[in-house]
Write the structure tokens for this entry.
Amino acid sequence: MGVKGLTGYIARHAELYLTPYELHDCSLVIDGDNLACNLYKDASGPYSAFGGNYDDFYRTVVNFFTVLDECNIRPYVLMDGGYEPRKLRTVRARLRRKIQLIKRINPCGSYPIFPKMMNEVFVDAIRDCGVPIMRCLFEADDELAALARKLNCPVLSYDSDFYIYNVRYIPLITLTVKARTKLRKESASGRNLRKNEAKKLEKLVKGNRVIRGITISNQETSHRWVTYKYLDCCLYRVEKLITRSSLSKEKIPLFAALLGNDFISRKPFQNFFAYGLGKIGGSRKTNQHQRRIRRILEWLKHESLESALEKIMNHLPKAS
């Protein structure tokens, strides 16, 4: 779906919103369509306009999941399904843009061209790796978030929707797909029972009594070094946005709606942006949309959810 401009805003303030993270020994819920596009870009390089390269793409996908396995990461891949009726207008608009792009295509251009069978090859590679994969009925975003919460693990994607979901989110571009090795100190404790402790235990067993509350004092602790493999990445939590912007959780959906997405156009909010939100200041080094995001966050900080909704509704176009 995508929240317009939010990816750029977070990237511009990455030091405030993203935390370095070592990914290993955990489950990982993956946005399959997003991963497929990004891996194909890596596999085809700047020559995607020529199409094909399915063998290179297949190997790239297999290598990706091999690296995850090295770090003991258990992936679960979810793919998008059909389109909801309310999104068909957006889908048609995107298809028209693609047609216009193909008409004036530049083989050496930077805009990626995805081949027709890309998703099929992606799914085949995943199945050959033995990774669980599921296709959702419609867009997979809600299911990705629900599964991540159920498994208590991060979501891997590059979709600005996950900046407002209440899940741990790893932006795909922050992931370094190269396993690194690190040493970790672990405590290893344990010793044999002392003679008097052993006798006490023996009496309890002979008497067929329930053993409880046996404590061993003066426990000797030793340490050992173990190695583990991990992937470097950055982790985002919605609490960062809430804390940094002094927002409450219930205002997050309203914030996202004001920015616009595939389902909600910004056009109905034009009067509010012009007269209700106030002047959008800030440095000219950032574009207007980035300045608007900052202004919306500042405005919401001083409004309750009810007062914010009332002021927005007062500036919406009247139904004819």
